[in-house]
Amino acid sequence: MAEALTPMMRQYRRIKGELPSDVILFFRLGDFYEMFFEDAQAAAPILDIALTKRNHVPMCGVPYHAVDGYLARLIRAGRKVALCDQVEDADASKRIVRREITRVVTPGTAIEDAVLESGRHNFLAAVVRDGDTAGAAFLDLSTGLFYGEEADARDGLPGVLQQAAPAECVIPAAAAEDPELRRAFREAGTATVSPGDDWPFEYEAAHDVLVRHFGVQSLAGFGCDGHPAIVRAAGGVLHHVREALRRDVGHVRGFRVRQAADMLLLDDATCRNLDLVPRPGARRETTLLGVLDVTRTAMGARLLRDWIVRPAADPDRVRARHDAVAALTEDRALLRDLRDALEPVRDLERLVARLGSGTGNARDVRAIGASLARVPALRDGTAAHPAARIRALGEQLRPLPELVGLIERALVDESPLTIRDGGLIRAGYREALDALRQTAAEGKQWLARYQASEQARTGIKNLKVRHNKVFGYYIEITKGQLGHVPDDYTRKQTLVNAERFITPELKEYENRVFGAQERAMGLEYELFQEVRQGVVEQTAAIQATAAAVAELDVLGAFADRALALGYTRPVITGGAAVRIKAGRHPVVEQMPDAERFVPNDTLLDCGANQLVILTGPNMAGKSTYIRQVALIVIMAQMGAFVPADEAELGLVDRIFTRVGASDDLARGRSTFMVEMQETANILNNATPRSLIVLDEIGRGTSTFDGISIAWAVAEFLHNHDRVKAKTLFATHYHELTDLARTMPGIKNYNVQVRERNGTVVFLRRIVPGGADKSYGIQVARLAGLPPE
Fold this sequence. Notes:
This protein is α/β, with parallel strands linked by helices. The protein contains 25 helices and 27 strands. The protein starts with 6 loop residues before the first helix and ends in a 5-residue tail after the last helix.
């Protein structure tokens, strides 16, 4: 019962009662964070620590100085943790020390390195519905990145969520049972969905939160006009982080609305089918990211991932990136110098975010100083660069020499992890600190002399002068020597085998020396806070530098890959055609055990070469070929060079893929239903500026029905002006080759093979015309089917 609890446990119960039931409370007691009752029972097995009991109360604990590692385990397990700290000096308090929740850590708001993956963002998303429209806002608290998107609530929202892959999503409590949102979260694989208060997601409240946070009168400058659902989501998530989770958001300095027209849209099926980025459990090297990611910084790695899943659709932006990559490939010495200068730059985005939130330490400050010290070399190498984009990025770099000098003068080279126990500040930085340190150092020498003199005066050879936090300094004498204790010793404590004493001289020393040590540590903390505040005041400049460093890093990686792998600059035209000479699959050609890659040409347009029917046997290379065309387009619109001898293309607005066969048993969808729904999405949303990759249509039903569906899909894509997208259609239905006889925009191609002594040899060459047969028996023989 409550009356049987100690004052401390009543305090614990009160604070725990302020939290949602799914939040584990880390309760600071001295050098440990303790957990009690049901929290201890839940956390102990996850953390692999002992669960004990005291007065029948289950409990467990972790050292406060190692808390990040334990937080990481709980966050990875999908749990939320509230940190409750002492907010007053325990020694000065005459009653139970006051404690408060200082922050709540959830999967979407973690900023600790032990929790985060350096090469990808860690988003907390917020979603609201406004009729058929969904507004989504994504906040990466670890970097300050904050943006919003709008999508169709039914068809578009899952893809928006899948691309951002938020670690957690918060929604208004009233929307918790919304079937469309629940379906979107299920399809996107969003595991952690947290309900928040309803009122912060109302438009007026959300608008007020945003304008107050950014210090503006209107949100027009952020592109929010006409997007009320985005405003509601953005204001709601910012309020949730600041108030419900008690996190500092001062480093969140900007917000932007991502418009569909600015990007080449890739839904999750396309990202998955083209192996753009690793899926859970997949090998990184078998993805486009694995081939292209030779970035030197964590910021560059994150930006590269963003560019891969969201290539640009603005021709000027794409050409500017190509100009930059071309200039770097033409000046290899500059490229080498640039990438060498990037190598030591640490993750400025996450470092300044930690410091701004009050959780960073002196090592974080030193890392920022060391990273900023590399900026002048980067700026010198980019100031007069022939490529306009590189010059612009160079101008965006802010060296901040005064801040770098302050950090260098103030902080020692090898800073301790903790910031309250001293050892942070250089000698000579502040005279008052040096004086306190001198007093403490002299005191230690005095203590050694005092012990020796007392041993000589009393004749007690084993007399020891010692210290603990409870009694301070004391003289300890064993029971057998008590007869030699002088009259001026005052008994302080009796032990089993010894007695402890104090003297006026020792008490005076304690007041002088111990006070100097305490004051020195307190002054060091104050001085560190001044340096940290100096960094926080430059957050905007540091974030601008980080953004420039990230883009320079990605452009340098593109240039490196172009030189190392034989990529060429694509030509961006104002037309619709895609012309590729000797194109290659960027991932397959890098597989160490693969056969020699055979390049192939491609011509697609919205006229005579609008739809290619590609036939040929299994294993001949149809799937590799159609995927490589899509990957080359994506790489070109990212701003990278491409694996081809030549490439000329007009920008596309979307890439659709329908590949393979898979059940979706969790939602009761068969292979064929999945195939038909994906096909329907393509036919309903493709435009003449789109690129479609179809790898088999109609294979999941009877042959007659399958051919009929495949034929109808091809006719629809060819005949409807609303669609008429550039299409690569790989199929085993040879009957579809007849479409080319009556439809002028359809062309037949096949993968060339040869038969030798009853064995099929794959030549991997794409040639005009339809395949003469499927070679299914030969492929079955290669697969090892018994002759019978």
